[in-house]
Design a protein that fits this description.
40% of the residues lie in helices and 26% in strands. It is α/β, with parallel strands linked by helices. The relative contact order is 0.08.
Amino acid sequence: MEVMLGGYKIPVEIIRKKNKNIYFRFKDDGILYVTCHRLIPVVQIERLIKDNEKSLLRMYEKELKVMDRNLRFYYLGKAYTICYDESIKRINIDDDIIYTKNEKMLDKWLKEECIRVFQEEIDKLIINFTNIPPFQLKIRKMSTRWGVNNVTKRIITLNSELIKKDVTLIDYVIVHELCHFYEANHSSRFWYQVGLRYPNYKEARKDLRS
């Protein structure tokens, strides 16, 4: 079964259960899943889809954006298409295409890039600070934070997902964490220190949240 929503021809899969209500949802396969009672006729489902066309279209276009993000690979703020080629010996970037042998090679390269890029930016930015103690840089994937400064242990941990962001946003996170050596909390004094070294920090925070 297929329906037209705003010019899109969308496949529909009907899942029949004992529930009283009808539920619509999209998955990352672009299919409209309709969950309804087993006795609901198809013509009624088609009519409900038509009656809710605007809201369903918004849901579908939102899912299209998610699908597009998942299909694309982001590196330093730019979107790339990944091209797999078994003959590739090392990562090669040409325009908006990243050529790699496989996922393993790409993951290894990304880890190396995190170390290289993050350390280079730290070296560049730290000259704007005084009395920063020696510290260790760690990199790992985090689900809720872009960076963490363990002031006591003198360890700054940066989220490996930052490598997907523009360098200016990486710089903000580094400045943010370095400022915690001055102020361990997020008081007005802390944000004053951040603002001295990264005046557009409010915009950077918004960009990272998006």
